[in-house]
Amino acid sequence: MSGKSLLIISGESSGELYGALLAEEVRRKFPDVKLFGVGGERMKAAGVEVFRNVTHAFGLLEAAHTLKDLKETYRATLKRVEEMAPPVAVLIDFPGFNFKLARELKKRGVKILYYVSPQVWAWRAGRIRKMKEFVDRMAVILPFEEELYRKEDIPCEFVGHPVMDEISKLGILKLGPVSKSDLGLPEAPLLSILPGSRPGELKMHLPILLETVPLIKREFPGHRCFIPIAPNLDVRPFQAQLGELREMGVVIKKESALKALALSDAALIASGTATLQSALLGTPFCLFYKLSPLTFFLARLIIRVKYVGLSNILLGRAGTREFLQKEANPENLTNELRRLLGDHPYRDRMKADFARTRSLFEGKRASESVAGMAARMAGWS
Fold first, then answer.
1. What are the residue boundaries of the structural domains of the chain, listed by start?
2. pTM given for the model
3. Are 262 and 278 in contact (CB under 8 A)?
4. I want to staple 39 with a disulfide (CB 3.0 to 4.6 A). Which of 43, 55, 212, 330 is the partner?
5. pLDDT digit string (tens) for 32-51?
6. Which CATH number fits domain 175-359: 3.90.76.10, 3.30.70.660, 3.40.50.2000, 1.10.10.410?
């Protein structure tokens, strides 16, 4: 096929958002470029021809269940690459799939721009040396990652975090025009609860929330609880549990987590990108997370970082509480909410930490930088 084209591969909800933001920027700068790839609804809305949907593989058992789908996606990607002949592929995180794909694309003359580093600083650091075999350029989103790749002579740039792009796009860093009516809520104090964006996370976390929400309602009767659901998440297996939460008065919608967090007095957040979103918005929160006992046991053996949340990792200390496994229980979460809402010096210290975290990313425009990198690699500019 003649003409300019760019392949974008994402494998889960946060990566799909980054792919959509990148696609918008590429289309703005290079409207004649044909975008195609693996993604979801947000990438489709951004103008990407999505020929396969994202796969929500997570954890050891869950990943095994998606193996067939991943193989089909791999074959479909190579077929589409033959038809489109893109000069560059932007591969977003998702190393279990993207590493294998990158090696094959490299053999076919496609340049590899790897966007969002695998967490090599947390576990399996040897992957950096493997990446040297097939990565042409790295675009990393955490400030300390750049040096890790440059030490291995892999061209690398810290581009900032795409969450800041999303915040700027929605105009909510200073709470701008966003209001509770945008979420279909009355003007009442709001608490956001983010149980995760993967099926495995909902499976583990919804039972905890079914016990926690009644305690929250008794403790904070004037607050409304809101659960934003990730756009690409299939909630059909969880309809019964979500229905129980709705009966308790929880508002559950497929909405922007950013809007909800920006409008909230505090939040309970499953580990993931949402913890950084909350920190960048200045919304006090605590982190909770639960894995199957086997997965948690194996994770403890191989993971080298002291903290789970990105804001704590960036700070180098526990600026926010992290409740893992048995500690992720209704009493701990409710007690921490009480402190987040009522202990003003505690809130102020947390907000000061969040301001320091936000300063690491201010002035950076990740999507614009990555679009420019792809264009230079493809010879468009």
1. 5-160+364-378, 175-359
2. 0.88
3. no
4. 43
5. 999 999 999 899 999 999 99
6. 3.40.50.2000
